[in-house]
Amino acid sequence: MNKKETLVVKLGTSVLTAGSKKLNKAGMLEIVRQCAKEHAKGQRIIIVTSGAIAAGREYLNYPELPKNISSKQLLAAVGQSQLIQTWEKLFSIYSINIGQMLLTRADLEDRERFLNARDTLLALLDNGIIPIINENDAVATAEIKVGDNDNLSALVAILADADKLLLLTDIEGLYTANPHANPNAKLISDVYEIDDELRKIAGDSVSGLGTGGMATKVQAAAVASRAGISVTVASGVLADVIEKVFKNKAVGTCFHAQKTPLERRKQWIFGAPLAGELVLDSGAVKALLEKGSSLLPKGIIKVNGTFSRGEVLKVSDSEGKDLGHGVTRYSSDALDLIKGKHSREIYNILGYEYGSVAIHRDDLILN
């Protein structure tokens, strides 16, 4: 028998509704049946579910509402309870208890809240309870949203120290081109490295009716595989897909886990949603890539976004290439004032200082 493992299963709106306007309860029951079968073997399963807004529309009999954020939040507020009740009823058929967790970016971005969420998640798993997780769309604004459940599921996989992540969608996996438009498109079965070419393919591909397409699945795979978690993108209607993933059978597209995963603190840094961007000059890029240096304010030529000290930023070169992610020692306002300046000038400019570096090497992960 396979060793006990933890699997995160992410279900998009297109899978949960089977392309209709309402939840496809028969399809959901089939997923529950598969989960129950593995749960009985002692395997640990977490579900990241979309579908709250679709459930809200169905419950309210498809009302005509303004196309704005508050209407979506209204539907999510109504639909979230309907969605969790549906999952509860279906899992109760197999006498399995579930626990709901609603998360926002703020819960995963702050180190202490990240650890608290992790403790809750592991407590549920340790007690044989299947966590059902969704983004808290009823209260989340653009500033605190993860944005899509593909990336949320990757962060949840890191939270739970999961072995595998399964992204279920309405196509078989990642193709060399859009399979709906190109009959010569071929399925990519195995991915060992996510490069710019693969991201371009994913950007041209499509999947799902929700907020995530194939590009967000590749983003999620990059985060999870970097943390030592294998990621599979597969069809939500494939027979016994969950058992096949547990048994390491070839299905869909497998993004293989990196052999030297990041240590836990750096998993959090890499997984945390990005709050902004620092654009560097060529000298700073060379110092980071070739010398393993910390990032000094002098090497920063542009500060993008509004962020606080302690948030995670993208670090880019002048042509926009993503070099890595790191935790900033200074806010965006402070960095705007000290960018391009020598470290010895920080105190005179700001009237305070948190050290001579903008991002310390220990808080930086390069791609």
TrEMBL record:
Keywords: Amino-acid biosynthesis, ATP-binding, Cytoplasm, Kinase, Nucleotide-binding, Proline biosynthesis, Transferase. Belongs to the glutamate 5-kinase family. Residues 276-359 form the PUA domain. InterPro entries: AceGlu_kinase-like_sf, Asp/Glu/Uridylate_kinase, G5K_ProB, Glu/AcGlu_kinase, Glu_5kinase, Glu_5kinase/COase_Synthase, Glutamate_5-kinase_CS, PUA. SUPFAM superfamilies: Carbamate kinase-like (SSF53633), PUA domain-like (SSF88697). PROSITE patterns: GLUTAMATE_5_KINASE, PUA. Its EC number is 2.7.2.11. PANTHER family: GLUTAMATE 5-KINASE, ISOPENTENYL PHOSPHATE KINASE. This is Glutamate 5-kinase. The keyword Heme does not apply.
